[in-house]
Specification:
Shape: globular
Radius of gyration: 23 Å
Number of helices: 13
Strand content: 15-25%
Order of helices and strands: HHHHHEEEEHEHEHEEEEHHHHH
Distance between the termini: 21 Å
Largest sheet: 10 strands, mixed
Structural class: alpha+beta
Helix content: 25-40%
Length: 403
Amino acid sequence: MVRRASLDFAAVNDPRQARGIRHSLSGLLNILVVGLSCGKLNLRAIESLSSLVGAKMRRRLGLSRKVSDTTLYELLANLDCAGFRETNWQMLRGDLESKAVTNDFFAGGVLVLDGKGVGGGLGKRPNITARQSVCDATGQECWDVFALRASLVSSSARPLLDQEFILRKEAETTVFGDVAARIVKAFPKLFRIISVDAGMTSRENAHKVIQLGKDYLFAIKGNAGRIHERAQGLLASQPVVARTEERQQGKLVVRELRRCIVPADCDYEGARELFSVTQTRRRGKDVEREARFFLSSSAPDSLCDDRALLLVRLHWGIENGPNWTMDMMWDEDTRGPCLREQGVLATSWLRILAYNLTSTVRAHLPKKDRLPASWSDAKDHVFASLLWLRGAPDAETFVAAIA
């Protein structure tokens, strides 16, 4: 935990003038990351954390003393995002080498890309990356930032590997190839399958995945053209080959997989199979049923029926994992420590680093009733580690801080 919380941020440029600098850039960014990791969502709380952390741990993080919230705010407002991607990869490579992150859910690895809003504010947009809009009937101007993110959903930690800022969701298809190629170059053996939602499904993207030497699992809807209609017709007559049942929020959820070989006239490069998963949610007499369709380039004999159903379920891993967690645990869609200028963009990268730190800790905490530890427990574990492993001020202060 201590090792993973100490990043050098050598690739990030320091926007501050040399005169009067009291803290190293790595120290300030490290305290921001660990502060977010343990649930400190505003700069005043992170300032308090810097005073609670023991002297040894501060030195480990790169700080010589307590840091003020004003210093952190001014840094975020002027911080260039260049270099954060490399810092995130540095952390991930360390976790992969130490086996803290493995493909324990699905051997071979599955990467999912999906778009998500990463913050915003009121008034005029601070830069060209933000999208200007009007948020209510009174005409109040507002802006928001969108990003295409990539997560390794085949790992129980579900780390975020990369992100690319885009103006709107429709731009996902345009940047997909560049983002996928960049990740494959950085982690060539980490995953075998790339999965995207229907909005990024296209013949061009199928070609790009095959050219990268990977297989794809593409969700298909009406925008996929004739293949969607063919999938509906062909799979309707196929038998159920895999089935799961579980209880969720008082409902019985049943998922059933059907599969078949793609028709000969399918013009998606590398396409081999069609899947459908019918999900039925039942509570008493209330029944909800939904069918989803997928196009796969994986060899049919490489996926048994149960693994094919698991692969389709992992397709939603980025939505149920990092996307949900960022909004519910880190308030990404509702608040931010700095809404000025580059602050939103810089904070989005710091949140990714914080999420990866906490999610990997959470993946190794003891389970209860076969379920992962709660995010609150994981954040408390990070907090306790910061105070205790490198010397809390004293036991009484430690107990008071946890309370």
